[in-house]
Design a protein that fits this description.
single chain, alpha+beta, four-stranded antiparallel sheet, 2 helices
Length: 62
Amino acid sequence: MNLKATHDDYKIILLSEDHTIYGFTDYTEESWALIGGLNWYVSDKDLEEGKRTYIYTGSEPF
């Protein structure tokens, strides 16, 4: 499932399409410059099976 990165003055938040929060971190301009431009995902299969899942990106340079 694709996640959308958004932020306010304090946190960067990774949200699903239905606005479920899957992750967050402290906001800085430096971290947003890196995180905001990448594609983020979680495993649909792991979620459906109730397994622990991780947020990942396939974007360069990662």
